[in-house]
Amino acid sequence: MAVVWTDRFADDVTTEATHGGLSVGVPADRWIDALTFARDELSCGFFDWLTGVDEMEEGFAVVAHVYSLQERHHLLVRTRVPRAYPALPTATGVYRGAAWHERETFEMFGIEFEGHPHLVPLLLPDGFEGNPLRKDFVLASRVAKAWPGAKEPGESGHGAPSRRRVRPPGVPDDWGPHA
């Protein structure tokens, strides 16, 4: 199946056999073409999932898993968007099932899906700031306020003094209460 992709997309595609299927990488401007080709020419009519991967300096990878019920083959279609402005056209015109996954990826990674019919937060509470699946996101909620009550020996005000408090990994020293 890799030959079919190189015949169609020439130098714009990379292919790799992975875990019993094919993984295809395309530039962001060919994202919709690749998904449409998978659906129409390769019978990959079953849309399984779409997600992002934070690759730090390289930007974000966006990966979609589709499947052909007729041919019984899996396909991963992936692309990369820059960290400075992570955006792709929406795949909802190709796969209706992409709508929910794009909303989740938008919320968790901050990747815009241009033309999405309803790109609003899906899972996080109202007022939540940031994109929690980005590697540079600091999970500071655990240190934002002191935990009520005793949690370490000596913190109740009776007995031995408490141990030195250690901040969770990745939390800067100037975050949270200073005790």
TrEMBL record:
InterPro entries: NADH_quin_OxRdtase_su_C/D-like, NADH_UbQ_OxRdtase_30kDa_su. Gene3D superfamilies: NADH:ubiquinone oxidoreductase, 30kDa subunit. It comes from the Bacteria. Residues 25-142 form the NADH:ubiquinone oxidoreductase 30kDa subunit domain. Residues 148-179 are annotated as: Disordered. GO terms for molecular function: NADH dehydrogenase (ubiquinone) activity. Pfam families: Complex1_30kDa. Belongs to the complex I 30 kDa subunit family. This is NADH-quinone oxidoreductase subunit C.
